[in-house]
Amino acid sequence: MSRKKLIIGNWKMHTHPKSSVELAKAVADGWGNSESAMVGICPPFPWLASVVEAVQGSKVEVGAQNCYPAHEGAYTGEVSAIMIKEAGCKFVLVGHSERRHGLHETDLFLNRKITSALKAGLAVVFCVGELLSEREAQQTEHVLEYQLAAGLAGLTEDEFKHVCIAYEPVWAIGTGKVATPQQAQEAHAFIRKRIAKLFGENLAAHVYILYGGSVKADNAKEILNQPDVDGALVGGASLKADGFLAIARAAE
Ligand code: PGA
């Protein structure tokens, strides 16, 4: 089945007040009214509202890079899904490997984040992916199966309709070592099979599965052409409007 591709830029902890708005405007203007793919950007928390304003009326959606599971309360330094929603965002990334491995976020914690984001009315981009050591030990499928089952535990089919998956092999993130199109396709097909087990064939046929890890303008097309790759989660290459737009155009 053919799904319109979805390209999301994850700015991570980059940009400044002025450069974030300039980058967002350049992406929105450059993309124009095209409906041939869907485009989203994830700025750092402090610029969410100004970036939402900068892209207003355009085809570009804004998401956050993370959220905290509780709605409000004494959680110093945290930002809830409701706050993100109120800032004008449409979606949130959950489970990025830099949070799983750098900040030791557990599958149980990620499951709580997903549930609270969905309850707040945000769509969720749920990131999964194996370490290099796990791939070398032939554990990739086992890791993906576990991350999906634990992260998505307890979700109803209706809730799952607002979730998309990002397959990001940890060894390919920010390393310049992109997965081969075959490696990406194999992992994506496996993820789709597991989603079918968890939520049924129909939702599995519709779920978006993005690839992330060193996607650039010059390798995007080959990866995006794989039958089970529905888009890309782009880190470094999303920080320049031209490069990011070239990836989005490769998805058209
Ligand atoms: P990268 O990051 O494109 O810089 O490898 C991808 C990601 O972390 O989502």
Low-confidence residue ranges: none
pLDDT averaged over residues? 97
Helix share of residues? 40-55%
Distance between the termini: 16 Å
Radius of gyration: 17 Å
Question: Which ligands occur here?
Answer: 2-phosphoglycolic acid
Strand percent estimate = 15-25%
Structural class: alpha/beta
What's the total number of strands? Answer: 8
Order of helices and strands: EHEHEHEHHEHHHEHHEHEH
Number of helices: 12
How would you sum up the major sheet?
Answer: 8 strands, parallel, barrel
Shape: globular
Order of strands in the sheet with the most strands? 1-2-3-4-5-6-7-8
Structural description of this entry:
By secondary structure, the protein is an alpha/beta fold. The protein has helices at residues 17-31, 48-54, 81-86, 97-100, 107-119, 132-136, 140-151, 157-160, 181-199, 201-206, 217-224, 241-250; strands at residues 5-10, 37-42, 60-64, 91-94, 123-128, 163-167, 209-212, 231-234. The protein has an eight-stranded parallel beta barrel with strand order 1-2-3-4-5-6-7-8, surrounded by seven helices. The longest helix has 19 residues, at 181-199. The radius of gyration is 17 Å and the shape is globular. Residues 10, 168, 173-174, 212-215, 233-237 line the site of 2-phosphoglycolic acid.
